[in-house]
């Protein structure tokens, strides 16, 4: 019975959120509005910011968080270990 009540509450919350979002959202833009110079410039700036943030996140080490070993890293370390025995 509790699971049914949780499901009903979840569905009703989703429905209310859908209705509120639908009424507050402006209509979709035409392709001309989406491809104006200012709109494309904004998209380019957002893309550059995301690329820069991704680059910084990859370069700066975070304390307590280790980078997972990729298959290429494992291959390199295996070659180093094998070169010791030659």
Could you explain how this protein is built, in words?
With 86 residues, the protein is mainly α. It is 74% helix and 0% strand. The chain has helices at 2-24, 31-34, 37-59, 71-84.
Instruction: Give the ordered list of helices and strands.
Output: HHHH
Q: Which structural class is indicated by helix and strand composition? A: mainly alpha
Tell me the overall shape.
flat
Give the strand content.
under 5%
Main sheet specs: none
Computed over alpha carbons, the radius of gyration is: 25 Å
- Give the overall average pLDDT: 79
Total strands: the figure is 0
Distance between the termini: 69 Å
Considering DSSP H and I runs of 4 or more, what fraction of the residues is helical? over 70%
Low-confidence stretches: none
Number of helices: 4
Strand and helix layout:
Layout lengths: L1 H23 L6 H4 L2 H23 L11 H14 L2
Quickly describe the structure.
With 86 residues, this protein is an all-alpha fold.
């Amino acid at each position: 019975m509790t699971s049914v009540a949780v499901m009903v509450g979840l569905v009703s919350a989703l429905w209310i959120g859908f209705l509120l979002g639908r009424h507050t959202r402006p209509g979709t833009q035409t392709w001309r509005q989406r491809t104006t110079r200012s709109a494309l410039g904004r998209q380019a700036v957002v893309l550059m910011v995301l690329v820069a943030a991704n680059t910084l996140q990859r370069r700066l080490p975070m304390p307590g968080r280790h980078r997972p070993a990729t298959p290429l890293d494992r291959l390199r370390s295996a070659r180093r270990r094998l070169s010791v025995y030659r």
